[in-house]
Amino acid sequence: MASLLLVAGMLSGCTGADADDAIAPPSGSASPSESPRPTPSASPTPPAPVSPVAGGCPALAASDAVVAASGGVQRVTTLDQMWHIAIETEGGLACSLLTSRLAVDAYLLPTSLATGRIAALLAAPTCDRGAGSMECHASAPGAGQTALVAASFPTSVDDATALGELGGIAAAVAASATEGTPAPTRATTWSHPLDCRAIGETIGVTSLLGSDEARTALGAPPAATVDGELAIASSTTARCDWTRTPTQKGDRGSEFSVISVPGGAWAWKTLAASVSDAVDTMVGGHPARVTSRGEVYLSDGVNILHLQGQRLAGVSVVDTALGVLSVIAKKDAGSRG
């Protein structure tokens, strides 16, 4: 029998699947060349958080302090993975800043997030050396939040020099920000954390992964980067990750993940527009985007949800998403009653 390892909780994101390994998209979906944008909903847009930097990442990159510390930012990008949206939902910010020397990931993390593993990360500026490069991170306190910056350096650079440069950029990022405000949420939001066991039983995860028996365990995989560590440790996301380990030569195993950001629906239009090779559909009455690889992104008007998988047995992603929603709704109804 193939063995199955279940990892449940707040874990790092799965890597993208090969096109023939992903969940089968729903029948009748458009070809990968078609990427229609979501149709605006008639419902009002949920209230957004207040950014710690008015104008967001572009304004942060253009601030006098950041320009002076970095030597000038040539390109700026707002990071938009689920855990980045979760950071913004809490009143923080996540940016990528390309300078003439470095590609810097810069985060403004509200005090509410500085717990557990993230608190340990912020307290210890460090360089981790690999075979050809090293990743370093440094932090600096600010108004109601902490700035965390990370970048890769050649191994020829000594730790003190790298950390000194990043420390200066972190201080500049912190000085350019004020305290943000989390997104307002209504009383009824999705369960946090998710009930991974109930979700697995409802969607038939053992069959989904191509296994007749399941062995369960809890734990988090190692994080290779600061961004990966934030994905694992962030208290603003909830997720379940299942992995079936290979059992014979040629078997690459299979994976499936459910990721949610409670209160993240304010970013739905931005998130949906960034999802390429996808078509619009409805799942349980909620707007959704289904990609050609079979990933599902959806919003209930308050929260956002992402389902993704690799090398799965034939499955309807819409039916699977409905199963996940039914577990969440039942658990939330029980907690209210």
UniProtKB/TrEMBL annotation:
Residues 21-51 are annotated as: Disordered. Residues 22-34 have a biased composition (Low complexity). Residues 35-50 have a biased composition (Pro residues). Keywords: Signal. It comes from the Bacteria. Residues 1-19 form the signal peptide. This is Uncharacterized protein. It comes from Microbacterium flavum.
